[in-house]
Design brief:
Rossmann fold; 2 domains; 9 strands; binds phosphoric acid mono(formamide)ester; binds norvaline; cytoplasm
């Protein structure tokens, strides 16, 4: 298996399905209060160049539950913020720690870190991908629907890191994906090209939210301005008009559809309060599953 967890495209379906199997086992053990110290005595460094609530807490708690030790590092309080090269930081960290989780801007930063590190590197979100989140989302779909096989998954909104990772996931797992993104906010072209070349399922990009949501089993959205795009907020609010996930749009999906949002959500922008608080919303299970799925990822790579 690949040493690092930087993008889903580095893994086969069977490797990722094995992570879901371990996730289920670890979740059951945690619920039953059974010890599962698969990473006893091991240390995970968590490097954050962007803000986080879920990623930080779920990795930190997860490492503790696995019998290991998590270490929070903010780039601005470390020598990374003063320009120490990534390749130097990576080699030093690997001398102390058994794994490193990084949340940063460019995908090339996590890739360079991984190239110079002898220990596993886990992508905790970059501008390009959010692989731990999509694994948690898919695990939530499996829990609620039994499987992702044969489902139509819809994405409405920005062609951002979440959308790019959903595109890779559709090609790997073989479910249908339709994305509705406004013109100028399309997903990463290389991710799309890779997926279309490898997919057996249908992966469709449109600018029509109604087409995407029609008869969908799972409807997903995310913020209109991601971290690092705060200055574009006002322009994006105008450009994304009509892309709000509200009751009227959700009515086009299947009657038993699930609503996902990786959080944090902006109620009244990309999603309405009645949808995120409504009967189709699985966002709290989704957030919880970050913990369980990341424990399985860490145990698989670092165990
Ligand atoms: N969904 C997610 O990654 O949340 P945080 O930004 O709070 O970590
Ligand atoms: N697309 C969002 C996801 C946050 C978890 C961002 O990158 O800010």
């Amino acid at each position: 298996m690949n040493k690092d967890f930087l993008a889903l495209s580095q893994f086969s379906k069977s490797e990722l399905d094995a992570i879901f199997t371990l996730t289920r086992e670890l979740k059951q053990k945690q619920k039953r209060g059974e010890e599962h110290h698969l990473l006893k005595g091991k240390t995970l460094a968590m490097i954050f160049e962007k803000s986080s609530t879920r990623t930080r807490v779920s990795f930190e708690v997860g490492m503790y539950q696995l019998g290991g030790h998590p270490l929070f590092i903010s780039t601005k309080d470390s020598q990374m913020g003063r320009g120490e090269p990534i390749k130097d930081t990576a080699r030093v960290m690997a001398r102390y720690c058994d794994g490193v989780m990084i949340r940063t801007y460019g995908q090339e930063i996590v890739e360079e870190f991984a190239r110079y590190s002898s220990v596993p590197i886990i992508n905790g979100l970059t501008d390009l991908h959010h692989p731990c989140q999509i694994m948690a989302d898919l695990f939530t779909v499996i829990e609620h629907r039994g499987s992702y096989e044969g489902l139509k998954i819809a994405w409405v909104g920005d062609g951002n890191n979440m959308a790019n990772t959903w595109i890779e996931a559709a090609a790997i797992f073989g479910f249908d994906l339709t994305l509705a993104c406004p013109k100028g906010y399309e997903p990463d072209a290389a991710a799309m090209q890779w997926a279309l070349a490898n997919a057996t399922s249908s992966i469709v990009l449109t600018d029509d939210p109604q087409e995407a949501v029609k008869d969908a089993d799972v409807v997903n959205t995310d913020v209109w301005a991601s971290m690092g795009q705060e200055a574009e907020q006002n322009k994006r609010e105008k450009d994304f008009a009509g892309y709000q996930l509200n009751e009227a749009l959700l009515d086009l999906a299947k009657g038993n559809c699930m609503v996902l949002h990786c959080l944090p959500a902006h109620r009244g922008e990309e999603i309405t309060d009645d949808v995120i608080e409504g009967p189709h919303s699985a966002v709290w299970d989704e957030a919880e599953n970050r913990l369980h799925v990341q424990k399985a990822i860490m145990a698989t790579l670092m165990g």
